[in-house]
Amino acid sequence: MKLGGGDILVQFLQDEGVEFVFGYPGGAALHIYDAIFRQEKVKHILARHEQGAVHAADGFARSTGKPGVALVTSGPGATNAVTGIATAYMDSIPLVVVTAQVASPLIGSDAFQEVDSVGITRPCVKHNFLVKDVKDLASTLRKAFYIATTGRPGPVVVDIPKDITDPAVKIPYSYPEDFSMRSYQPTVKGHPGQISKAVELILSAKRPMVYSGGGVVLSNAATEFTAFCRRLGFPVTNTLMGLGGFPATDPQFVGMLGMHGTYEANMAMHDCDVLLAIGARFDDRVTGDLKKFCPHAKIIHVDIDPASISKNVRIDVPIVGDIKQVVSDLTRELDAANKENDATALKKWWNQIGQWRGRDCLQYDRGSELIKPQYVVEKLYEVTGGDAFVTSDVGQHQMFTAQFYKFDKPRRWINSGGLGTMGFGLPAAIGVQLAHRDATVACVTGEASIQMCIQELSTARQLDLPLKIICLNNRYMGMVRQWQEFFYESRYSHSYLDALPDFVKLAESYGHVGVRIEKPEDVEGALKEAFAMKDSLVFMDFVTDQTENVYPMIAAGKGHHEMQERELA
Amino acid sequence: MRHIISLLMENEAGALSRVAGLFSARGYNIESLTVAPTEDSSLSRMTLVTRGSDNVIEQIKKQLNKLIDIVKLADISEGVHIERELMMVKVQAANAEQREELKRMADIFNGTVLDVTDKTYVIELTGSGDKLDAFLQTIDQSSILETVRSGATGIARGGKSLRV
Ligand SMILES: Cc1cc2nc3c(=O)[nH]c(=O)nc-3n(C[C@H](O)[C@H](O)[C@H](O)COP(=O)(O)OP(=O)(O)OC[C@H]3O[C@@H](n4cnc5c(N)ncnc54)[C@H](O)[C@@H]3O)c2cc1C
Ligand SMILES: Cc1ncc(C[n+]2csc(CCOP(=O)(O)OP(=O)(O)O)c2C)c(N)n1
Ligand SMILES: [Mg+2]
Fold first, then answer.
1. Taking each helix axis from N to C terminus, what angle separates A456-463 and A425-435, rounded to the nearest 10 degrees?
2. Interatomic CA distance for residues A114 and A117, integer angstroms
3. How many angstroms separate the first and last alpha carbons of chain A?
């Protein structure tokens, strides 16, 4: 088969099994768009902004585990995509982003819509390529998908000059089955000696703690990991990215840890004697002050990326490998050891944790006349039977959702943790809903965040996606306001949003349904009604308490045992 | 501690900027960096001199290894090794006394005079960085017109070699 470069790209995507390409056209990409037009297998999803396209591809990837694919034009198309690429990079999400480039002879001449896309994206991709010869196109794409989806996943950018996609230059094409990369061989299997050491340490624990993160989700290892934790009977905490990797309704689950984690999770971190860290990267939002981090614990760390190990915290037993494989090896070794943990010690530890739990650190004023954001999320959980895909933006609403929606399954909680990108929620929900046409998809957002990618309401309209948008409208950049209240003597510098749009009318003008909810007693009914509308996107504008804060909170420089808690009157 | 890290990397455009970008993005020290093709035209070899605590050096090595274009890495300063740097110095050599003194110093340091005019010499020296520093300190400072140094390169002694 002889094809031009544009057709090679599209044929390759078909052969790779890609169903959706999220994109936005422009001059340098026109040969590719023409090739897309001339076929039906790969469906192109037209976003309304390149950032939205990449977030949508990202939402698709997070909810399915398959790589997300985006396509943008050169220059402004590529620069608009950067926020989306960086968002995926920070959370290790597999994406392949094709950026069209000006024709090869023009590169370096400050040509129309030329930017150095490879240079601009270099610090926020796992790898990137500039295709210099159409003969290299298919093999480069093959490598891009391989790199994006293996080892520690991440976004890969493939920059393709316009002449490379020229339909007049036809070359033979076949899907490159075989290819080799001598410089890239991720370690999958953990070192047996390290596995034995880890099991010995695990079995010696009197106050054990499991701290797991996004790696469990990325490795598709939730089932194995959950069985492993249940077998041990240890308390389990998840990072923001790990939620759903262990069922939140399981009695062993002590909640999220870190800056806005639960009292019991953070106290257990502080007091544990053996910490089993699995697929988590000791982020500063999680550790608090490193000098006060887990002062009594020996630490085991399982991670596929050697650079994650001992980066922030010194590790006693590192295991480099894929979680699915390592957990099964750990389980086998545990069986072989034929030993149990000291049951009395474990019982005592659980008693202690029970006392911490008893403080009910997530309590809030349930008698308020105003709508409390926590209440909306609790009701959302009930109305959706805990089984929705929930995306979010960034801010207080994100934390309330993490705290109050009990995720029992992986890939259900879709949010930007590492980069914390406002504007992520709505386009990500579009990607999720496309991947799961019959599922319930909710986007919990704030009135500030939603405005960063609001134009994607148009995409959702075009595709008839029945998303449910839950806007917790506090007329503040709540998370910013909270910090200003705590650390800047309530000087609310530019965190107040004046001149907000009427979101009901806005939703309607995009062809969706909009509702405003102002009283606590209307919350449940409104949610039920909205979720019953199976064919419509419903934008729910909840007018919430402006002064609500997220608790508990670990302030800068504090340790896990130094949380600020809510004081109820 | 000072470390000499040798890298074999794919001879691709952009490989060098990945390494340089990594050092600036992560705030690592870079004392010198040299790179040239090898006998295998698909590979270049880079020698990087850096400083940092043990933790930082460990992260530098892990982060370098993570770059897709890096094929192999060795911290040659961890074992016995040879380190060499090339320097050329242009000095003022206008009178007999100066010429005599500079020639003598060049000989002591095993240097070679590569270029002679009626007013200048260009002296070539190879050795460790310390040796080159010592030479510069020994000769009359006011006579130095220009220096150029290659940055350190190095190789492990004995049977160990860095190859794919
Ligand atoms: C406003 C705001 C507040 C936040 N507050 C908190 C908070 O209170 N608590 C909190 O936890 N986070 C919080 N975060 C998120 C935080 O910034 C980090 O994104 C998050 O803690 C990182 O999660 P993680 O450690 O699970 O790592 P991830 O970023 O999910 O990284 C996954 C790790 O697993 C490894 N891995 C990937 N695949 C595999 C595999 N197959 N096998 C083995 N290992 C693998 C990777 O190498 C990596 O080290 C907040 C973010 C925002 C925006
Ligand atoms: C693109 C971007 N710009 C700025 C920030 C900093 N920031 C974090 S939370 C936040 C406020 C979010 O406000 P809103 O969406 O209303 O959510 P709330 O905290 O009120 O729930 C801001 C500005 C960010 N995370 N992302
Ligand atoms: Mg707000």
1. 20
2. 8
3. 75
CA of residue A215 to ligand 1 center, whole Å:
8
| The predicted structure's pLDDT at residue B13 | 85
**Cα gap A132→A260, rounded to integer Å:** 48
pTM: 0.97
Contact residues, chain A, for B70 at CB < 8 Å = 183
What does the angle CA A506 – CA A510 – CA A516 come to, to the nearest 5 degrees? 40
Place of tokens 């006392």: A355
Exposure letters A114-149 (e unless 16+ CB within 10 A, then b): bbebbebbbebbbbbbbbbebeebbebbbbbbebbb
Say how far apart CA A121 and CA A481 lie, in whole Å: 32
Average pLDDT, chain B: 96
Residue A553 per-residue DSSP state: B
Alpha helices, H only, A205-342: 214-218, 222-232, 263-271, 284-287, 323-337
Residue B18 to residue A130, Cβ atoms within 8 A:
no
| Residue A156: both structure tokens together | 């890969």
One DSSP character per residue, A64-111 reads HSSPEEEEE-STHHHHHHHHHHHHHHHTT--EEEEEEE--GGGTTS--
User: A418 C-alpha vs ligand 1 centroid, how far in Å?
Assistant: 7
Q: Determine contact, residues A472/A373, Cβ cutoff 8 Å.
A: yes
pLDDT tens track for A42-89: 999 999 999 999 999 999 999 999 999 999 999 999 999 999 999 999
Q: What is the pLDDT of residues A281-313, one digit of tens each?
A: 999 999 999 999 999 999 999 999 999 999 999
Q: Which residues have CB under 8 Å from B100's CB, separation 6+? A: none
Measured distance CA(B13)–CA(A116) in Å, rounded: 13
The position carrying tokens 């993160």 is A213
Question: Which residue matches tokens 């110093």?
Answer: B105
DSSP A464-487: T---EEEEEE-SB-HHHHHHHHHH
Query: Distance from CA of residue A371 to its chain's centroid?
Result: 28
Q: How many CA atoms lie within 13 A of A398 on its CB side?
A: 25
* Beta partners for residue A376, in sequence order: none
Q: Which amino acid is at A217?
A: V
Cα(A83)–Cα(A421) distance, rounded to whole angstroms? 8
CA quadruple A105, A109, A112, A114: dihedral sign = positive
Q: Which of A91, A124, A286 to mutate to test the pocket of ligand 1 (most atoms within 8 A of CB)?
A: A286
Residues lining ion ligand 3 (Cβ < 5 A) are: A 446-447, 474, 478
Count Cβ atoms below 10 Å from residue A468 Cβ, excluding itself. 25
Q: What is the dihedral of CA A237, A238, A244, A246, to 10 degrees?
A: -40
Cβ contact, residue pair A307, B63, below 8 Å: yes
Question: For residue A407, what are its two tokens?
Answer: 């995720």
ipTM of this model?
A: 0.93
Q: Which residues pair with A34 in a beta bridge?
A: none
Instruction: Specify which residues A517 forms β-bridges with.
Output: A542
Cα B92 from Cα A130, distance rounded (Å): 48
Which residues does A139 contact at the CB level (< 8 Å), separation at least 6?
A176, A179
Which of A152, A183, A281, A315 would best serve as a mutation to test chain B binding (most B beta carbons within 10 A)? A183
For ligand 1, mutation pick of A195, A239, A275 (most atoms within 8 Å of CB) = A239
- Residue stretches of chain A with pLDDT short of 70: 569
